[in-house]
Protein 1
Amino acid sequence: MVSRACSVGYRRRMNIPCSGGKTVRPVVIAHRGASRRALENSLEAFSLSLSDRADTIELDVRLSADGVPVVLHDDRTGRIARENLSVARCSAARLRRVRLKNGEPLPFLADVLDLIRGAVPLQVEVKAAGGAAEALRAIDRTRYAGEVTLSSRLREECLAARASRPAVPCGLVTGRPSASDVAFCLRHSLSSIHPDHRRLSALRIRKIREAGVPFVPYTVDDEERFFRLAACGAAGVFSNRAEELRAAWRERFPGGE
């Protein structure tokens, strides 16, 4: 089972300050888990985010040669693992033998679903063609009952997600958000757009907000940048320092959660 609560949460937290003077914090998404304190996209990083009671945990999904969803950002394992293999050219059985640099096995999506068990919302960024369909199958097979949002830089994957499971929120990942990106989100009822915060100008933010598309920039680790984006109406941010940003918000806006 998957829920629409994630996209609803984006819309609920879009503007600060809110009516009545209450300041509402944007959603802070743990980018690849607690990736500043542990190896990204590892079970250790996701476990730390669980302990933090993260707003949402984000992870990346690629497919093995036989179509099994693997949790990894890059197309090869070398940056975070002890051997350098092409994910798309290896079977799931072969990838199961890969050890990360922290000694853990390379996680599959099913492993992370079993770890999280719906305790916090989950955002799955699809990095490979066919990944949306396979991620949804994995979610169905495990009878996962938690909140899930999909996202992708690949427009075809966003379309596949919307066509096969329209009730599941899906966001478009982009660099500098273009008019075409915003129009795509509107045309296909995507829940949000996820731009690179370094490529956001005041004009682009205004255009996105005028269109009514919640924007969730990545990857925001600086506290002052977080506050500025929140003041500009960001619905949330992706961060390697999610817990630290939440703590900074509590310090600046006591009771503003």
Note: The beta strands are 27-31, 56-63, 69-71, 122-126, 148-152, 170-173, 192-194, 236-239.
Protein 2
Amino acid sequence: MVYRCRIELNEIAPKIWREFQFHPDVTFHQLHKIIQSVMGWENYHLYEFHVKEKVIGLPDPTFEHIEDREVLNARREIVQKHVHEENTVFTYVYDFGDDWQHTVTLIKIDASTSDPAPLCLDGARGCPQEDVGGVWGHQHMLEVLLTPNHPERDHFIGWVREGYDPEHFSCEEVNQELERHKDKLIPKSLVKRPVGKKPVKLTKSALNKHLKQLNSDQLIDLVKACYGASKDMEKFLAVRILGDEAVESLFQEYCKKVEKEFFPERGFGKLRLQDAKHAISEFERLTGNARYALELKLVYVENGVDFTLSYGDIDERFYNSMVSMYADIIDQVNEDETAELFDEFEERLEAVVSKTEGIGWGFHDNLANLHAQIRWI
């Protein structure tokens, strides 16, 4: 049995829509991944399903105590438990900043199909760009791109992903993507595993043994293949081969990622704090550079302070995140036996505290208490 659904992106005309099918015993988190593929999103942001007055998403235990509603865990909730009648309509929300609202309709329950793999059946028009600014931002971008002498045209041409065509849609391309991830998009009970075989894992010793057996040309081919495998691997190799120059370049790139959540080039900051923190973690993982990672954390806090000075008091969740990040910075400064980090960032660390005087939620007091714990003062 499979569910056949139609999904439409709300408030955009002509419609951006897809028709697709999937097994009803998948979790809502798996359905999220299927929707990401069939629509053409890039899975950068958080999401929620709204089904019969229930909210299904990924609860954040960090802020569970201040959440004023129940959020069911999408990794545990099975679609069929909540959606089991034809013509049931529910909502999928992606990216709480851009607020992309999708209407999903269960148009048919097909008991004659036994293949559990998800499949895209039909659709029209290309998915909007990530972080474009929601419906208004998408429509504005299209208007600019279609106006040859528009003053913002060069900016958008340099910003959109290469080859972007708002009218392009290909079922074949979507199904190739779904096929690549098929085992993760069907119920776990239906994933076929080789009988009697343990999962294969490449250990460091096995890797070392294999690399020693390769000649120089084979090693070069392997590194080239790794380089082309993902953007992360490309950045990792750049750091390993180009050294400090690549780290500096990546630092500037990730600074912009953090800053745009507070002060983007266009519009107002969306305060997707998890995205900013993910950028910091990713930079640290790719480079292993503790000093620049500390500065990225400081950039995060500085932008948070500047944001609240620009727009007024935010909320407890926002300030807790800033204080937590500032605490991480102070811990790292205190662990540095040379005091070089303190010498380099002393003025900026003090400025964060002094600029917050008068801000509510105990923000200034918490930062001041942390600053007083610096061992070098």
Note: The chain has a mean pLDDT of 92.
